[in-house]
Amino acid sequence: MEVCYQLPVLPLDRPVPKHVLSRRGAISFSSSSSLFGAPDPRQLSQRRGAISYDSSDQTALYIRMLGDVRVRSQVGFEPERRISHPYLCIDFRTLHTRLGYGSTSASTTPERRVHRLLSFQRYLHSSRLLRGVPQQIPLHILDEDYTGQARCMLEKVGNWNFDIFLFDRLTNGNSLITLTFHLLNQYGLVELFQLDMVKLWRFLVMVQEDYHSDNPYHNAVHAADVTQAMYCYMREPMLAKSLTSCDIILGILAAATHDLDHPGVNQPFLIKTDHYLATLYRNTSVLENHHWKSAVGLLRETGLFSHLPAEDSLNMERELGSLILATDISRQNDYLSRFRRHLDQENMCLSNASHRHFILQMALKCADICNPCRPWELSKRWSEKVTEEFFQQGDIEKKHRLEVSPLFDRAINTVGNIQIGFMTYVAEPLFAEWTRFSDTRLSQTMLGHMGLNKASWVGLQQEQTSVSKEAEPSSADADSEGAAATTRRDSTTATAAGGTSSKEIPQGSKES
Questions:
Q1: Are 157 and 205 in contact (CB under 8 A)?
Q2: What is the pLDDT of residue 134?
Q3: Angle CA(286)–CA(292)–CA(295) in degrees, nearest 5?
Q4: 426 contacts 66 by C-beta, under 8 angstroms
Q5: Of the ranges 168-172, 219-223, 475-479, which one carries the lowest mean pLDDT score?
Q6: What integer pLDDT is reported at residue 79 of this predicted model?
Q7: What confidence tens digit (pLDDT) does each residue in 124-158 have?
Q8: What stretches of 239-363 adopt beta strand conformation (E)?
Q9: How far is Cα 348 from Cα 296, in angstroms, rounded to an integer?
C-alpha cells in the first residue's frame, strides 16, 4: 500500500542539529526538578492520588465524584469484603459482553488467563502483526470515492467543527491512524526526525489496536478527536510561534496515546477490585500511568525512536509521560491553580522550555475534555457515549455487588444532569482560564458552544421534569376513573341480579 501526501512542510523555528533531536526542549526529571505540573513528592506520598479540598468547594467535590475513590469517608471496602471481590474474577475483556452489550457467546466461552505484561487488546490480537499473520480486516479497503472524501476532510482538519465520526467512517474505522500520520507528515516531522515509515505505520496500527473498541467512549475515535483538538490548539498564534519540533511531535503522540488500553472503568473501580495496576502504581494516577507505560512499550517494541541517541529517546519517553499524566482528572485543581497563578502574575514565558511544556499539558487537558465545547450534534453524541460508559460501569458494580460509584447509577442519573454538572464544575473553569491565556476566535467559539450546549441540556432536563409531573396526575386520574367505572359496572350487575347495590351484597355471596 502506498501512502502519498503532497502537503507543504511548515518551516521550523530553528535548524535542527545532528541526531535530529536537540536538547533545547529537554526537561529535567530529577527529584529536584521544578517542572510545572509535576507534583511535590511529599504531597504525593501524603495524598496517594486524592486531591485536597474544602468541604464547600463544589468543583473539587464533583471532580472527586468523577475520578477519586476517596469521595466518601469510607475508602473502598473493608478488608474482608475486598477479599470477597478480587479483581481476578472480573475479566475486562468480557465486562460488556457479559451484561449483554456485545456478543452473547462470549459469556459461555472459558476465560483465558490474562498475560499481564501485554495490554488486554494486545493479548486479544496475539501480536498478529509481529508474527506475520494478516489482519482479519485489512486497512483501507475503501473505494476511491471514500478515500477522496477522507482526503478532502483532512484539508480542513484544523476546523473546530471537524466531524471525527464521519471521518472514522470514511477511513473504515482507521481515523486515529490516518489522522495522526497526516499531522506528523504535515508538520514535516517524519522527514525531520528520520522516522522509518514501516516502523511508524506499525506503531500507529498497534496504538489503534490497543484501544478497546467495545468501550462506548474511551476508544480510538476519542483518541483521534483529542488529537484533532490538540492540533487546533497548537495552531493558536501564541503556541504556533513558540513550539519547537520536539514539542509538536510530543503533543501529537501524547494526544494519540493518552488513553491507550483504557479498560472502560475508572480508577476507583480498579482500586476497590484490587486490580494489580492499582497496586503497581500505589493508587496514584493508575490509568494515566498505564497509558504512558503502554505507549512506551509500543515505542520500544516497534523501535520508532531506536535510531536516536539513547538519552534523547529516554527524554522523549519521560516528557510523553509528563503530558499523559496531566490528564488525571483528580489533579484538575492542582493544574488549574498553577495555570491561574501564572496568568495572574503574567509571568508565562513560552521561550522557556518548562513553561512551554506546562502549556502543552494544559492544552492536552483541554483537548481531553473539549466535548462540551463542540457543536451541539457532536457534543450531544459524545455526552451520550461517555454517560453510557459510566452507566455500564455502574451495572458491573451492581452485578458484582460492589458499591456503585457516584454518577454511575443509571437509575438515578441522566445524561443531562451529569453533563450540566461537568460543564459547571470542570469544563467552564478550565476553558475560562484557557481563554485568558489565548483569547482568540477559537476560544470564544468554544465558550459560545459550551454556553449553548449547557442551555440545551437545561432545557431538556426541564422538559423531562415537566413531562414526568404531567404523567403522574394523569395516571392518578386514570386510576380513579377506572375505579369509578368498575364500581358502576358492579352496581349495575348487582341491581340486575337481585335489586340491590354491590354494597348490600353479603360477603359470602360476593366471594361465591
A1: no
A2: 44
A3: 140
A4: yes
A5: 475-479
A6: 35
A7: 554 444 444 444 443 444 456 667 899 999 999 99
A8: none
A9: 30
Q: What is the mean pLDDT of the chain?
A: 78
Long-range contacts of range 440-449, CB-CB < 8 Å, 24 or more positions apart? 440/236, 440/237, 442/160, 442/232, 442/233, 442/236, 445/160, 445/373, 446/160, 446/370, 446/373, 447/373, 449/372, 449/373, 449/374, 449/375, 449/376, 449/379
Q: What nine digits make up the cell of 479? A: 386510576
CB 335 within 8 A of CB 326: yes
Q: What single letter denotes the amino acid at residue 130?
A: L
**Distances from the Cα of 235 to the Cαs of 163, 216, 248, 251, 466, in angstroms?**
18, 29, 10, 12, 45
The total of other beta-carbon atoms located within 10 Å of residue 3's CB is 11
What would the grid cell of residue 104 be?
452473547
SS3 labels along 395-455 = HHHHHCCCCCCCCCCCCCCCHHHHHHHHHHHHHHHHHHHHHHHCCCHHHHHHHHHHHHHHH
Helix 220-234 to helix 353-368 angle (10° resolution) is 130
Residue 478: what pLDDT? Answer: 52
Query: Which residues does 58 contact at the CB level (< 8 Å), separation at least 6?
Result: 425
**Residue range 186-211, pLDDT digits in tens:** 999 999 999 999 999 999 999 999 99
Each residue of 305-343: pLDDT tens digit?
999 999 999 999 999 999 999 999 999 999 999 999 999
What does pTM read for this prediction?
0.72
d(CA 62, CA 58): 6
CA torsion, ordered 140, 143, 148, 154, to nearest 10 deg: -20
pLDDT tens-digit series, residues 101-124: 444 444 443 434 333 344 545 555
Would you call 14 helix, strand, or coil by DSSP?
coil
DSSP helix/strand/coil, 485: helix
Over range 473-495, report the average pLDDT.
Answer: 50
- Altogether, the residues listed in the chain come to a count of 512
398-438 pLDDT, tens digit each: 999 999 998 999 999 999 999 999 999 999 999 999 999 99
Active site residues: 218
DSSP 193: T
Residue labelled with grid coordinates 489496536: 209
